[in-house]
Amino acid sequence: MTSLEIGLYSVVVVILLIAARMPIGVALGLVSFVGIAVMRGLDVAYGMLKTVPFDFAAHWELTAIPMFLHGLDRPPFGHLVGAVQGRPAVAERAARRARGGR
Fold this sequence. Notes:
The chain has helices at about 5-20, 25-40, 40-60, 60-70, 80, 90-95. By secondary structure, it is mostly helical. The chain has two domains: about 1-60, no CATH class; about 60-100, no CATH class. The longest helix has 17 residues, at about 5-20. The radius of gyration is 22 Å and the shape is elongated. The termini are far apart.
């Protein structure tokens, strides 16, 4: 089996796993691990499983985007994803009394 065939099969399997409601990160990680194990061997796949997360975290430039996306479920961006639906009633009453409030 060539690496092109493995890549095409991997894309199909990832799409099927996502359609089966598996989390995207888990599906990508699982298919990547199996693909590397098929192409290079199981010991290389285990070695990459040990080193790649550390290498990714060691370069802080590459972790900025995932950390930004992780913060989307919290204010000030929480309203974009629907995490912050309602404000507490106390804060709303205080805003009405304040000058410039509703």
